[in-house]
Write a structure and sequence with these properties.
Layout: E1 20-32, E2 36-43, E3 46-53, H1 59-64, E4 70-79, E5 94-105, H2 122-127, H3 129-132, H4 136-158, E6 162-163, E7 181-183, E8 191-193, H5 199-207, E9 212-221, E10 232-242, H6 246-263, E11 268-269, E12 276-278, H7 279-285, E13 299-301, H8 303-306, H9 312-319, E14 323-329, H10 337-349, E15 356-360, E16 366-367, H11 376-386, E17 393-399, H12 401-418, E18 426-427, E19 429-433, E20 438-441, E21 446-449, H13 460-465, H14 470-474, E22 480-485, E23 488-495, H15 500-509, H16 514-520, H17 522-528, E24 535-538, H18 542-549, H19 580-585, H20 592-602, H21 606-609
Parallel strand pairs: 3-5, 6-9, 11-18, 12-19
Antiparallel strand pairs: 1-2, 1-4, 2-3, 4-5, 7-8, 9-10, 10-24, 13-14, 14-17, 15-16, 15-17, 19-22, 20-21, 22-23, 23-24
Helix pairs in contact: 5-17, 16-17
Length: 610
């Protein structure tokens, strides 16, 4: 017989009754009935009930050993009494009559209870993550993550992609977030950077003659945490294709996403091909570039309703070149005034001066602080544009297009949630396409890249050289795209700029001369000068995909060992101090500010300790 087990704890059924069985696992729960002790024994696979009687010499030991201690037991598998059958688990019709009981490892008192759904503070959960991971829900999340990644690999290989690994220690490059830097011992004063993404390396693979690449790539960015973004590191399904158009990339990744979401959920998933929405339309209709299409509310521009009207606030905005956006709210006409006041407060919390609204009565008349400034013709035009009916209301935001979109988008989401308009039983995918290639940097009063400096402008070099003004440059669209699901951006991607002359020209417009391009992107630009195919790709986020499939609101619930919101690993106590010998080997000297911070941490005041 095996030293530890003949079966696992999720395996035994009625067909195994009468067998001599050995099991090992954690004590999950105990029920003491005096002369009988029932223990739920748990391992990775499930639970098996074991029974110890007063005739067993080890009853007292088993009674007093703590939950989460690891034990090995042997005995005969017997049928449970009919009234004790548990139909909720595979092993619910049987139990093990224990003959030997060995404690392999006894547990200390538990800071986290594993056998309960009770919530514990996040810092406690992360400090004792090994206990947290034993809980059924999060344990299942990590198992799901493994299965999703395996499915990703299988699907990509079936599509003809090959998996390659790219370097972790590389050079720092300006990719939008702060780098994690690694000092070099053998090159004093120089640093490696952990890759924010394998962007340049995957493009180099295309320039090296490979046709279809992918990897489950770790990425490192020194940025703040959010519910859908883990600080420090994350993983993505990184892929790139040679001789590819935007349509080719979509045709490759859509069946992977659709297949994953239909494999691991029973929810309805958008059929392929996924809808394509231009960036401009998305900003207008949904107020952002990652729309939740489960929400049926559509934002409309209603300038023609208010242009030249007696409502001077909106009329003035339009005259100054700004806009007015409307968000329909179906069926709220009978809501109390407090409903509308709360919406105004919500918009003000977002930075808006207020939020206008009009209510349409059942007889078709309008009421509210704005309605009296509009005649019947303008009210009818408003109903026509927004599609609202009697008994509905409409809210308004105004200002510069970006500002009006921001408020309208948040109000749309807020209304969709409050009015229970969002169907939680579906995953709605879409592509956002035709992003602007450039954008205006108001702080520095200059043109900058909008989305990704490695992207190809639609129209190529000619469209940039023919642009006669900043306005025409800002009208240029890029072969850039995002894939979005239920309001969450899963990835950005692009058809790449593989032409050196075009890259130099585009960077020059943003204020960077050729020497900067050669210094920051030297490997890529050199490769492009020796013949490089047109290529493009995308990199959907693994963590966000699993978060959606597990129906978890926080990404830390699907990562085995996440950091907290302060980018601290409480389990391993990282980041940590380094001794003076290591610092000297790396030719690093701490600044006075760093020394003071460490001193304060080592000797906290009484208030800080409290």
């Amino acid at each position: 017989m095996h030293d530890y087990r003949t079966h696992n704890c999720g395996q035994l059924t009625r067909k195994d009754i009468g067998q001599q069985v050995k099991l090992s696992g954690w004590i999950h729960r105990k029920r003491d009935h005096g002369n009988l002790l029932f223990i739920d024994l748990r391992d990775h696979y499930g639970l098996t009930q074991i029974v110890i009687t007063s005739d067993d010499a080890f009853l007292d030991q088993a009674t007093h050993v703590r939950n989460e201690s690891v034990v090995t037991v042997t005995g005969e598998l017997v049928a449970r009494n009919a009234e004790t059958v548990n139909k909720n688990i595979v092993t619910g019709e049987v139990e093990l009559a224990v003959k030997t009981f060995l404690v392999e490892s006894e547990s200390d008192p538990l800071p986290i209870q594993v056998n309960t759904d009770k919530e514990f503070p996040e810092d406690t959960r992360l400090k004792y993550r090994f206990l947290d991971l034993r809980k059924e829900k999060i344990h299942n999340n990590i198992v799901l993550r493994s299965k999703v990644i395996q499915s990703m690999r299988n699907r990509m290989v079936e599509l003809g992609f090959m998996e390659f690994q790219t370097p972790i220690l590389t050079a720092s490059s300006p990719e939008g977030a702060r780098d994690y830097l690694v000092p070099s011992r053998v090159h004093p004063g120089k640093f490696y950077a952990l890759p924010q993404a394998p962007q340049q390396f995957k493009q180099l693979l295309m320039a090296s003659g490979f046709d279809k690449y992918f990897q489950i790539a770790p990425c490192f960015r020194d940025e703040d945490a959010r519910a859908d973004r883990s600080p420090g590191e994350f993983y993505q399904l990184d892929m790139e294709m040679a001789f590819a158009t935007q349509d080719d990339v979509f045709a490759a990744i859509e069946p992977v996403m659709h297949g994953l979401f239909t494999e691991f959920t029973d929810k309805k998933v958008t059929d392929t091909p996924f809808p394509r929405i231009t960036y401009a339309d998305s900003m207008l209709k949904y107020g952002n570039d990652k729309p939740d299409l489960r929400n049926p509310l559509i934002i409309t521009e209603v300038n023609e309703v208010f242009d030249g009207s007696d409502f001077s606030i909106f009329a003035k905005q339009i005259k100054e070149g700004n806009c007015v956006r409307a968000i329909a709210a179906p069926g709220v006409g009978s809501k109390p005034r407090s409903f509308f006041e709360k919406k105004i407060a919500f918009a003000q919390d977002l930075g808006a001066p207020g939020l206008g609204y009009i209510i349409f009565n059942e007889d078709g008349s309008g009421k509210g602080p704005i309605a009296k400034f509009l005649d019947e013709v303008r009210l009818d035009k408003l109903k026509e544009i927004t599609g609202i009916k009697n008994g509905d209301a409409v809210f308004f935001s105004s200002g510069k297009p970006a500002d009006a979109a921001f408020i309208a988008g948040h109000v749309r989401t807020h209304l969709g949630q409050e009015l229970d308009l969002i169907n939680d039983d579906e995953f709605k995918f879409c592509w956002i396409v035709d992003f602007p290639y450039f954008e205006w940097d108001e702080d520095n009063k200059k043109i900058d890249f909008s989305h990704n400096p490695f992207s190809m402008p639609q129209g190529g070099l000619e469209v940039i050289e023919n642009a006669a003004s900043n306005e025409e440059l800002l009208d240029i669209k890029a072969w850039q795209y995002d894939i979005v699901c239920n309001g969450i951006e899963l990835s950005s991607g692009a058809i790449r700029n593989h032409k050196p002359d075009l890259m130099y020209k585009a960077f020059a417009i943003c204020g960077y001369d050729e020497s900067v391009v050669d210094e920051k992107f030297g490997g890529v630009i050199r490769a492009f000068k020796f013949g490089c195919p047109p290529h493009g790709g995308i990199a959907p986020g693994v963590d966000r995909i699993v978060m959606l499939l597990a129906d978890e609101p926080n990404i830390r619930e699907v990562i085995a060992f996440p950091m907290n919101q302060k980018a601290e690993d409480l389990l391993m106590s990282a980041p940590s101090t380094i001794d003076i010998k290591q610092l000297r080997e790396l030719n690093i000297q701490l600044s006075p500010k760093a020394k003071a911070a460490l001193e304060k941490e080592a000797n906290p005041t009484e208030d800080e300790e409290a």
